[in-house]
From TrEMBL:
Any one cellular-component term (Gene Ontology): plasma membrane
Protein name: Multidrug efflux pump subunit AcrB
Superkingdom as given in the UniProt entry: Eukaryota
Gene Ontology molecular function terms on file: xenobiotic transmembrane transporter activity
Keyword set, alphabetical order: Membrane, Transmembrane, Transmembrane helix
């Protein structure tokens, strides 16, 4: 509503100001000045209206008023008057005229020194680049981390040790913390992850690379090649936090079924697997209605009969003769190590490699490096990008074109608005200057 009112009044102001200017500069009566003014600015008024498509209704009404009522009122109400020489308005006119002369003088001086002004303009653009955090600020953040662990997690934490300015490049805005747990024997690897810039494309910021198995490469061979890639990435100066997005292998209970014995005992193998799946893993039976809500029925063995490997001997299967046969007669258990999940990407066995670019390097540099290291691995793997990295690869090389098209569109709109091919250059080049005025270098550093 405020924007619509402002635009409605703005067109009328354009008409009134231009009529008053012609009356003052050319000494014409109000009617002749109004007719000449409308010949000059009618096209500009229409152009302003067409430029704001989103509020076309308000702009249409504004143009109708500016083209009809406002010119009529100007011709009827405005009268030629002598400029104010005394009083408040006289003083204001003299102040405004002096300011205009000074501004015109400075603009002329600037145009006469193009090399100096262009150099100063470039220097101001460089001066706006933000600086990194200071060492004292890094130390304050590390202190907050120590306080949080020693207060909120004091029942689990023994010692917290932090180092300021410690990373691969020795920057003062980086730090590292070492945490000793009170209990447990595991050595956890902790990574601080930044959320992705585009929600839904990945789980964190940085690159996501898929190491794929090719040909007859087994999962074990692919895991060995993955470890080689991680070792190479850890030694690269332009990569940090490179890791495989998978948990380490965990203990798993392996149940070995002697099918020959099971068949000899008159058992159906389908009955064996169904009983084992339902008793230890659970099986869906049907639905039922409870107080107006549909609930599911699952079948599963009681916890005390499936909590230890020896509990397998407590389960029986009915054979073809109707007698019950224990699992111990044809099955045995043993512990093995294996992954919690097996990942695949584009139909191939894969390991997802995640990481970030080190300070001073771009995400494109990091992606090129991890791709080069993957290509240096022995034969048996291929690679692919996913998440934000895939989008970045697909959009790679288009940023320059997009910026050029955007600047061209803005330039053409400004050229149509001002009916000039030179004024848009001044408007576009003033954008960095405005940013420098609003954000001084010492404020941008914060």
């Amino acid at each position: 509503m405020v924007l619509a009112i402002g635009l409605l009044v703005d067109d009328a102001i354009v008409v009134v100001e231009n009529v008053e200017r012609i009356m003052h500069d050319e000494g014409l009566p109000a009617r002749e000045a109004t007719e000449k003014s409308m010949k000059e600015i009618s096209g500009a008024l229409v152009a302003i209206a067409l430029f704001s498509v989103t509020i076309i209704a308000a702009m249409t009404f504004s143009v109708v008023v500016a083209l009809t009522l406002t010119p009529a009122l100007c011709g009827m109400l405005l009268r030629p008057t002598a400029p104010h020489r005394k009083g408040f308005f006289g003083g204001f006119n003299r102040f405004y005229a002096a300011t205009e002369r000074q501004y015109r003088h400075k603009v002329v001086r600037t145009l006469r020194r193009p090399l100096i002004m262009v150099s100063l303009y470039a220097a101001m653009g460089v001066a706006t680049l933000p600086a990194g955090a200071t060492a004292s600020r890094t130390e304050a953040v590390n202190k907050q981390i120590v306080d949080w662990f020693l207060m909120e997690e004091k029942q689990n934490i023994d010692v917290v040790f932090t180092i300021n300015g410690f990373n691969q490049r020795g920057a003062q805005n980086a730090g590292m913390a070492f945490i000793k747990l009170k209990t447990g024997t595991s050595d956890p690897a902790i990574f601080a992850l930044t959320p992705p810039s585009v929600p839904g494309l990945g789980q964190n910021n940085g690159f996501t690379y898929e190491l794929l198995a090719s040909g007859g490469t087994t999962r074990e061979q692919l895991g060995s090649l993955r470890d080689q890639l991680l070792q190479s990435a850890a030694q690269s100066p332009d990569l940090i936090g490179v890791r495989a997005n998978i948990l380490p292998q965990t203990p798993q209970l392996q149940i070995d079924i002697d099918t020959s014995k099971a068949v000899a005992l008159g058992l159906q193998l389908d009955d064996v697997t169904d009983t084992l799946t339902s008793a230890w893993g659970g099986a869906y039976i049907n639905d039922f209605i409870d107080r107006g809500r549909v609930k599911r029925v699952y079948l599963q063995g009681d916890g005390q009969y499936r909590s230890a490997p020896s509990d397998l001997d407590k389960w029986y299967i009915r054979n073809s003769e109707g007698t019950m046969t224990p699992f111990s007669a044809f099955a045995s258990t043993r512990w093995t190590m294996g992954p919690e999940s097996l990942n695949r990407y584009n139909g191939s066995a894969s390991y997802e490699i995640q990481g970030q670019n080190a300070e001073g390097f771009s995400s494109g540099d990091a992606m090129n490096t991890i791709e080069r290291l993957a290509n240096e691995l022995p034969a048996g793997t291929t690679g692919a990008w996913s998440g934000l990295s895939l989008q970045e690869k697909q959009a790679g090389g288009q940023s320059t074109t997009l910026y050029a098209i955007s600047i061209l569109v803005v330039f053409l709109c400004l050229a149509a608005l001002y009916e000039s091919w030179t004024v848009p250059f001044s408007v576009l080049l003033a954008v960095p200057l405005v940013y420098w005025v609003r954000c001084w270098p010492w404020r941008c550093a914060d």
